[in-house]
Amino acid sequence: MESDLKLINECGFDSFEDVIKRINELVNIMRAGRSKAEINLQRFNNQAKEFLKLGQKDKAKKELAKKKRKDEKIKTFDTQFNVILEKLKEVKSSKEMLQVLNATKYCNGLLLAELKENEVGDVPTKEYEDLLENDKEITKYLEIILKANKKTEKVKYNIPQTQNNNITNNEYLANIFNKKDFNNNQSQTQNIPSSEINIIKKCGFNSFDEVIIRLNTLINKIKLGRNIVENNLERFKNKAKEYLKLGQKDEAKKELAKKKVKEEQIKAFDAQLDSNLEKLKSINNLNQMKQVLNDIKYTNDLLLGEFNQNELEGNPTETKEYQDLFNNDKEITGYLEIINGNNDKNQKYQEKEEYNFPQDGI
Q1: Distance between CA 214 and CA 332 in Å, rounded?
Q2: Cα separation of 303 and 316, whole Å?
Q3: Do the beta carbons of residue 229 and residue 303 sit within 8 Å?
Q4: CA–CA dist 77, 88 (Å, integer)
Q5: Cα angle: 346, vertex 350, 352; to 5 degrees
Q6: What Å distances lie between residue 320 and 120, 312, 330, CA to CA?
């Protein structure tokens, strides 16, 4: 679209091919930061050795446990990088560019936090400085796009909560997806390869209609978590009022600025949920199921990240919403492990859909 081209020109690009190339370069910089964070984990081993020399075995075990947790956390960056790059391949609009930029900024921010925590000495490393420059550049692009989208109507969900309707989940989704034989598993599976049916049965489903129903339930749980994050934005306004009472206008402005940034992130999150629901309607084969699972996992993980940032009031990680998101992640990961495990034994699927998501890890 002409408006999209004008927008990316304001960002300094001549085409979406240039956008893809540049964001790919930013991700490569992030990979270097990830490698640096992994190297820094050696400090836990060193500290454990020191404790062992002193005969403090319990403290040594704690250091090694910290290292293990950090190891797992750093490994998740590999998956995040791959998902970003796969989604990046299909960037052809400012909306898709916005989603990828938000994901890139979030991942870059997590890496910055890791390196800041791990660095020793007063002089920042090159990797840390590069990630800072990444953040500045991505923020610039986001500001340009979000400014242009201010007048855009807020995205609405395509599939509302079913508990407000006096119909069953099967009947409701049948109406939404226009499936004539929604309750007839035998009819639905006639044209699906037996190898795919066997795999979804390993996941606990008898048909792709059952897959759609279950994934819709997981997305509804994500919506509830998203609402918790939005409701907590009021804390920024309250903090700003406290600063104003103390005459600290600059600090008050900073709090309101934080609120504005979070509001824009939630708008982008709504767009991602909308995309998840749109693609959910089209699941007719295993490849599409895998794509949607990766997409939902990515959205779910971003929301978990919000809960884990310790910015929400109270103890957000003790809430039912957080536990639901945590269980979502475990369940989706289980499905992906089954699908990816079977893909390792067979040739890769050739069909390409809207987004081609990678297997977990590199």
Answers
A1: 11
A2: 12
A3: yes
A4: 16
A5: 135
A6: 38, 14, 15
Q: What are phi and psi of 278, to 5 degrees?
A: -60, -45
Conformation bin of residue 204: beta by default, left when phi > 0, alpha when psi is -120 to 50: left
Confidence of residue 337 (pLDDT cuts 50, 70, 90): confident
What six digits make up the tokens of 195? 């190898």
**Residue 194 structure tokens:** 């037996």
Residue 49 pLDDT > 50: yes
Structure-derived torsion over alpha carbons of residues 70, 73, 77, 80, reported in degrees to the nearest 10: -170
Count of residues in the chain: 362
CA 284 – CA 164 distance, rounded (Å): 27
Collapse the DSSP code of 178 into the 3-class scheme (helix H, G, I; strand E, B; otherwise coil) and give the result: coil
Q: How many CB atoms lie within 10 A of CB 13?
A: 18
Rounded to 10 deg, the angle between the 286-308 and 320-345 helix axes is 140
Residues with Cβ < 8 Å from 207, sequence gap 6 or more? 185, 188, 189, 200
Structure tokens at 215: 């994934």
DSSP state at residue 124: P
Which distant-in-sequence residues (6+ apart) come within 8 Å of 230 by Cβ?
A: 266
Task: Sort 339 into a burial class: Cβ within 10 Å, 0-12 / 13-18 / 19+.
Answer: buried
User: Residue 318: how many CB atoms within 10 A of its CB?
Assistant: 8
pLDDT(346) > 70: no
CA 15 to chain centre: 26
pLDDT digits (tens, 9 = 90+) for 6-15: 889 999 999 9
Q: From residue 251, how far is each of 233, 236, 245, 254, 320 by CA, in Å?
A: 16, 11, 11, 5, 33
Cα(267)–Cα(44) distance, rounded to whole angstroms? 39
- pLDDT of 183 > 60? The answer is no
DSSP state of 207: S
Distances (CA, A) of 348 to 282, 339, 340, 343, 345: 20, 11, 10, 6, 9
- DSSP letter at 318 equals G
- For helices 94-118 and 249-280, the axis angle rounded to 10 degrees is 120
Both tokens assigned to 161: 């909560």
